[in-house]
């Protein structure tokens, strides 16, 4: 089986965009690939954050991924495998300053800091090094494939360049060249502003918690914007498209087909569409929410199992570091 690596930052609660756009796919890939999934807390340190919330969010994300069906044995917490940081250092020596300066995510995030805090904003070197850490995440497990969205393509290409340069410099085809694994995943828009992608950074109205309370989910769908006023005649508005997209993502195809037939006949009632979407989401969420509550009731055991799986994953990372240290001329660790 080919190796797949993917990672998610511990942002706290998962929203339905994360689920349909990433996590659901992780769960499926476990059937056909040898998967390792990281909750990447080192990465979350590259933007301003609070220590106590980072730790809380790391566990929250871990528990929520488990509730969605990611297997504990495939998961690890990045900082419990400190070899990621060591490999980052080694790989930084075969990464050029120019390459990192060209990364659009660095440009976007440093601009975001300047927009929030003015020209004097502190832009940490960690933000600049982010893609090298990401390359280490991928290469350390000899990943063949990385499921990525368009926004991460540039970083994956950099990982391949780093692997190639390392192999060339140290005279061995050691690191694999990780390829993107594209899967058709829906892009979910904000219910409050369907011209933008669902995201936590936009504010509370703009995302729907995956493991949220059913009444709140219903309320949010009920108040979803359907007409933005600028949709050309005869075209479906972005808000309505988004609701249909969610319905399809929940695989409520009977409701989808019948509501779409209403739309085509010019007889669609938005209230009926919203009710259908809210029902579909609640059906999807309920069992996962039950899983989540059961996991929380058994917190200590679950945390232990993740520490164990992180330790098992760490052995693979340590093996890589033993080989890498030898290749680059560092002494073996006793
Ligand atoms: P983020 O924390 O925003 O980087 O998101 C984590 C994962 O969820 C990434 O793989 C994103 O591609 C995915 N994701 C985030 N927001 C959305 C969205 N609105 N629709 C679809 N996928 C999303």
Structural description of this entry:
56% of the residues lie in helices and 6% in strands. The protein is mainly alpha-helical and 334 residues long. The protein has two domains: 3-185 and 299-328, Rossmann fold; 200-293, Tyrosyl-Transfer RNA Synthetase, CATH 1.10.240.10. The strands form two sheets. A three-stranded parallel beta sheet has the order 1-2-3. Helix 4 (83-92) packs across helix 7 and helix 9 (214-222) packs antiparallel against helix 12. The longest helix is centred in the C-terminal third of the chain and has 30 residues, at 299-328. The site of adenosine monophosphate has 14 residues, from helix 1.
The kinds of small molecule bound in this structure are: adenosine monophosphate
Q: What pattern of helices and strands is seen along the backbone?
A: EHEHHEHHHHEHEHHHHH
Q: Which regions are unreliable across 5 or more consecutive residues at pLDDT < 50? A: none
Q: How would you describe the shape? A: globular
In CATH, the topology of the largest domain is named Rossmann fold
Overall average pLDDT = 96
As a percent range, the share of helical residues equals: 55-70%
Strand order of the largest sheet: 1-2-3
Q: From the helix content, strand content and strand pairing, which structural class follows?
A: mainly alpha
Cα radius of gyration in angstroms:
22 Å
